[in-house]
Amino acid sequence: MGRRPTGPATSDFSRKRYEDYFSAFARIVNLAISEKVDAVLIAGDLFERRELIPDVVERAEHLLQQLHNENIEIIVIEGNHDNFTPGNEAESWLMYFSNKELLKRPYYYFKDNSYHFVPIGYKDINFYGLGYPGAMAAETISAFAEFLNSQPKEKNVVLIHTAISDGLGFHDSVPKTAIDLLNNKVIYAAGGHFHYHSKYPASKPFFFIPGSPEYWDWGEIGQKKGVIIFDTDTEDYRFIQLEQRHSIKLQIKLKASDSSTFATEFDDFISSLDIIPGETIVIMELWQNSNFFVDLTACEAMLMRKGALKSYIYLFNNSSVFHDFTNPTLGVEQIERDLISGWKSFGKDVETAITSLNKLKDYQRENEEDRFIETFDSLLEQIIGIRETEIED
Fold first, then answer.
1. What phi, psi does 158 have (nearest 5°)?
2. Is residue 7 situated within a structural domain?
3. Can you give the residue range of the structural domain that contains 251?
4. Which stretches within 131-278 are classed as H helix?
5. Which of 162, 368, 345 lies closest to 353, judged by CA?
6. What value does the mean pLDDT of the chain take?
């Protein structure tokens, strides 16, 4: 909660997107109440950032209070978005809500060269929180697994803001082997960080990521997002998919060979779109076979007149050699992708590099210095890792 897109805060787009995240959490609150659950687990990123404006605090408190009024335990850890420096818990708004008894936060700390885990006991279950360990996620999980080996066998649940990304090069995620250490030690592991639903292993899963309840960015359209309802007695589970902002994402292979015929083709095409006036986001890729000028600003204006809340249009060229930077019709992202694919360090993993670069651009525009540095460090670690592999080979 609290995320707002760049641009004028008073625009319909900014206002509605700001509301989307509160609406998403309200749907979870209502579902939890209707399903009569005993507890709601949030494995990080309850908030978009650590610093909150009064409106976010007030509205979050209202939603948490609804769960509290139904005697539903709320167990939360911090994520990378709302993280704080270890030892400075007073910086976290989670502590404010904890002090008001609206949620509970299991945690761990590192002292005297060892990890110490402080669970929340609820009914017959120990809820452990590993927070957002960043690049230390695998090590923290390993230490936690060793700790459980020394404990009586009980029902354990752990929350950790990480995800599985074997071979993808994300420094704050873990390999499957790290999660395997928790098998038969916890009945449920609540993961996060990645914004789409996943579970592991395929047979008898115990590590779950429900996915962010609302789109964080438009690259997530089409991903499964929802909640997991887990029975701690039978260990049965259900994934319930949630509704997100109405959006349309599509590719168009253009038949037009010049700007005039394109205008007619584009107008006819968008007339067929199922746009909900004032609500729908449209993300469109245009692929042209001939080189002619396409006024993307005019195209986006046409979609707005059709009722789109916001539109993003990207232009690609099927017939161009993408290294020809004199071609004015190439989309910037396509130029970057083609350029990076020729770099030795990223030739085998272009999409990861593109994703990282796009995040860096977003964070720079939004003055998100901490997240910019975090992503940049991850990108450097990926480059170093690839080069070390090449040296070993």
1. -125, 140
2. no
3. 247-392
4. 137-149, 176-180, 259-271
5. 345
6. 85
Tell which of 212, 241, 270 closes a domain.
241
Query: φ, ψ for residue 255 (rounded to 5)?
Result: -95, -20
Statement to judge: residues 96 and 235 lie in one domain:
yes
Let me know if residue 4 belongs to a domain: no
134: CB partners within 8 A, 6+ apart: 80, 171, 172, 374
Pair (236, 262) in one structural domain = no
Domain assignment of residue 254, yes or no: yes
How far is residue 15's CA from residue 71's CA, in Å, rounded to a whole number?
32
Is position 3 within any domain? no
What type of residue is 286?
L
Residue 244 pLDDT > 60: yes
Same domain, 216 and 259: no
pTM for the model stands at 0.79
DSSP 255: -
> Is the predicted pLDDT of residue 298 greater than 50, yes or no?
yes
CATH number for the domain that contains residue 158: 3.60.21.10
Residues 83, 140, single domain; the answer is: yes
User: In whole angstroms, what is the distance from residue 159 CA to residue 176 CA?
Assistant: 16
Q: Show Cβ contacts of residue 55 under 8 Å, excluding neighbours closer than 6 positions.
A: none
Please state the separation of Cα 272 from the chain's center in Å. Answer: 31
Domain count, the chain: 2
**Environment class of 239 (CB within 10 Å of its CB; exposed 0-12, middle 13-18, buried 19+):** middle
Q: What is the pLDDT of residue 332?
A: 52
Cα distances (Å, whole numbers) of residue 69 to 21, 26, 63, 73, 229: 22, 14, 10, 10, 20
> Is 80 exceeded by the pLDDT of residue 168?
no
Specify the long-range contacts of residues 135-139, CB closer than 8 Å, at least 24 apart: 135/171, 135/172, 135/381, 137/162, 137/172, 137/173, 137/174, 137/178, 138/174, 138/175, 138/178
